[in-house]
Amino acid sequence: RRLRPDGALLLPRRHVGEGRSLMGDYQRDDLYDRPQAVVDFRFDERTAAVFPDMIHRSVPGYATLLQLLAVIGADIVPPGGRVYDLGCALGGTSIALQQHMTADASIIAVDNSAAMTDRLAAYIAGSGIANISVEQADITTLELAPADLVLMTLTLQFIPPDERDALLKRIRCALRPGGALLLAKKPRPADDRLRRWHEAFKAAQGYSQLAIAQKRESLEHIMQTDRYAAVEARLHRAGFRSVIPCFRALPFCAWVATAA
Predict the structure, then answer these.
(1) Considering just the CA atoms, what is the radius of gyration of the chain in Å?
(2) Which of 56, 154, 181, 244 is 20 to 30 A from 91 in CA distance terms?
(3) How far is CA 33 from CA 28, 36, 138, 165, in A?
(4) What pLDDT digit, counting tens, does each position of 151-209 carry?
(5) How far apart are CA 210 and CA 255, in angstroms?
(6) Mean pLDDT, residues 29-55
């Protein structure tokens, strides 16, 4: 087994054509290396083309996070179960999980970015993965069928704050008995040292101070983070009774939220 470019420990990598990956040729993330008039961050084709490199170099412990979500998720999803991966991006969490589920369980991977879903759908089709379907949709309005597990990996911080409680409540209502939400998020640190250490981590991965500063500016208006305690409070308000932390790496955290 090898790491996929987005950090997923998973399928042997296949190629088509002139050595091209089924998900395309991914590039090094240099979007903010040059001085520029910074605009709001977008999950467009430019971002999709560098996303595996971006997320691996920006999120400490990302590969471990995906493996943990896969192992925990597999313990929750029954044979024939249904999973939603909301804000799936290039599907790292879905692809990690599907290797641990029974073959008759299914994952619906959803993202509002066509650049992401097109690449993910092409990879899944080319890899012959039968139990992941991909849908381009707005997760804040998506009608959810009854599900055993919902995944949200680094997605909630991009939902407008005044829409987060309603989305979490809809997820809770869609879960079958024994179901759960696996939520990974970047809360706003209470201690500014966590922010500084995270930026030091990115510098250690090869990002320049210019790139770090310009990306921070691009995210300022679209990534509005909650405090750690506020995330747990939202989960409880949505009707989750058990909220268990399962991962932490600098400011990044993950929880298992269940009804029981």
Answers:
(1) 18
(2) 244
(3) 11, 9, 31, 36
(4) 999 999 999 999 999 999 999 999 999 999 999 999 999 899 999 999 999 999 999 99
(5) 33
(6) 95
